[in-house]
Design goal:
Layout lengths: L2 E10 L8 H10 L12 E5 L11 H4 L3 E4 L2 E4 L4 H6 L10 H4 L3 E3 L2 H5 L11 E3 L36 H8 L7 E5 L8 H5 L5 E3 L6 E3 L9 H5 L5 E4 L4 E4 L4 H5 L5 H4 L6 E9 L3 H5 L6 H8 E2 L4 H9 L4 H8 L2 H8 L4 E2 L10 E4 L8 E4 L3 H6 L3 E3 L5 E4 L2 H4 L10 H8 L4 H22 L5 H10 L4 H13 L2 H4 L10 H5 L23
Parallel strand pairs: 1-15
Antiparallel strand pairs: 1-12, 2-7, 3-4, 5-6, 8-9, 10-11, 12-13, 14-15, 16-18, 17-18
Helix pairs in contact: 18-19, 19-20, 19-21
Amino acid sequence: MDIRSQVSMIFHLDKCIGCHTCSIACKNIWTDRKGAEYMWWNNVETKPGTGYPTKWEDQEVYQGGWKKSGDSIELRGAGHKKSLLNIFHNPHMPVIDDYYEPFTYKYLDLIEAPDMPDQPTARPVSMITGKPIDIKMGPNWDDDMSGTPDYARKDPNLKGLSAAEQEAMFQLERLAFYYLPRICNHCLNPACVASCPSGAIYKRGEDGIVLINQNVCRAWRMCVTACPYKKTYYNWSSGKSEKCILCYPRLEAGHAPACMHSCVGRIRYLGVVLYDADKIHEVASCKEEDLVKAQLDMILDPFDPAVIQAAKKNGVADSTIKAAQYSPTYKFVKEWGLALPLHPEFRTLPMLFYVPPLLPVMASVKEINNKDQAAKAGPITKIWEDQWLYDTSTAELFGSIEQARMPMKYLANLFSAGDEAPVKDRLQKLMAVRIYRRWKTVGDIDQKKVDEVLKGVNLTYEKCDDIYYLTSLAKFDDRFVIPAAHREHAIEMLEFTGDRKGSTGFGFKENSALRGL
C-alpha cells in the first residue's frame, strides 16, 4: 500500500443559504486584481441551472476530464498529441463570454455630471477594455432563477428525466432549487496535471493540494480544457494559469480557508483522509457504475493498525494520522456514508464531497369543510378561516424519498454517475435522522417505527446523535480538523525532479495514462 494523506472538504447542501459570502471572501483575497476579474475560484450556483462557466458540466462541449479507453483511460480533449494539434486553435476552450466579461460602473459620472433635468446614471464599462458594454451575463446571473427556460431548463443534469418529471419540477407551485458551492476538487487523478505540457501543475505530497508553479507555466492553457469542473483559469494580464490553492498559506498557519472561515451557513467541513495511491489508476479506469464505490473504497480506516504502519512508513506524520482519525470528512464519507463526489464520471477522483439536499420539511394546507373532516386530519393548526387547516402530521411532513421535490435521477446525474441507488441510500439516512429527532423532541412517532426505520438504514441512536451534533451543533474545531504543517516532509514526498524524468511532479510514479500520453 502507498498510503497518502489528502485534505478533503465536505459541503452539506441542506445548510447552504446561497449568500455568496464564501465567494466574496475568496475574491477579495485571491482574485481582486488585473487579469483575474472574471475568476471566481469559489462560486455558488443555483441548481437546476447551467452554472459558471455556462454548461461547464457538458463535456460534449468542453471535452474535460478522462474517458475510458479499453482497460485504461485517456484525456478527452487534452494530452500531448492533442495539444500539438490544437496548439494554435483549441475549439474546446471556454471563451470570456462563457464566463462573463467583467464589468464595473463609471460611478464618477454620478458626481461629475452637469446639472440636468434627469437623474444621471453610472454606465457599465468593461474591466478588460474600459469601454462601455451591455451586460449580458454575470457569475451568478441565474441566482434563484430555477424554472427559467434560459438557465434551469438547459441544465445538462436533466438528461434521463421524462418530460413529465421536468415539468413537475418547474411548475410554479412546486418551484424547486438548491445551491451548489464549488471550488477546485484537488483530485487524486487530476486531469489538469496530466494535460500540462510544461509540467507546471503538481500535487503537493504532504496534503494533496493541487498547485500551479507560476515560474514554470507557459500559458498553454491545456489545463483549462482538461479540468472538467472548469476551475483552472487563464490570467489574460500575466499570461499564466491560476486556480484555487485551498488557501494553503492559511492551512500551514493553522487557519481555515477563507471560504470556510466566512461561511454563514457553516456548511463546510475540512479534514484529512488517508488513501491508497496504488489504486488510483485502477479506480479511475473501472466501469462507470462502479466508480463511486471504488473511489470511496480507496479511503482507508485511519484506526486500522496496518494502515497506520504503512502511512508512517511512507512518511505521514503522527499528527496527520491523528487528524485523520477525528476527521469530519471521514465521518461523513465513510463512517456514516452520507456524502458523495461531484460528477465521478469525469474520472478525476475529486476530493470534495457533497451531502445531497433533502430539502426543507414542507407541511401542506388542506381545505376542510366540516369539523368531522377536521377531526380526521390529525394534528392541525388553524390558520385564516375555519375551512383552512395547516397539516403538520408526521405522515405529511415525512413523505417517501421518491416524492421529494428534487427528482432522484437529477441528483444521481450530479453525484453518482446516474446511479440512483447511492443517492437514495444517503437521502434515506438523512430522513431517518430527521424522524429520529422528531421522535426525540416532539414525541408523536411510535418508538417501534423509529427503530424499524433506523434498522433499515443501519443507523443507531448514537450515530444519529453524532450526525445531528456535527450537522447542527458542531463547534468550529469539530468542523476544521487539520494537523500542523510538516514542511520538512514535503520535498521527500514530492519527489520532484527538474527534468521530470521518473516523476510526475506530484508524488506518484510515472504512468502514461496519468500523464495523458
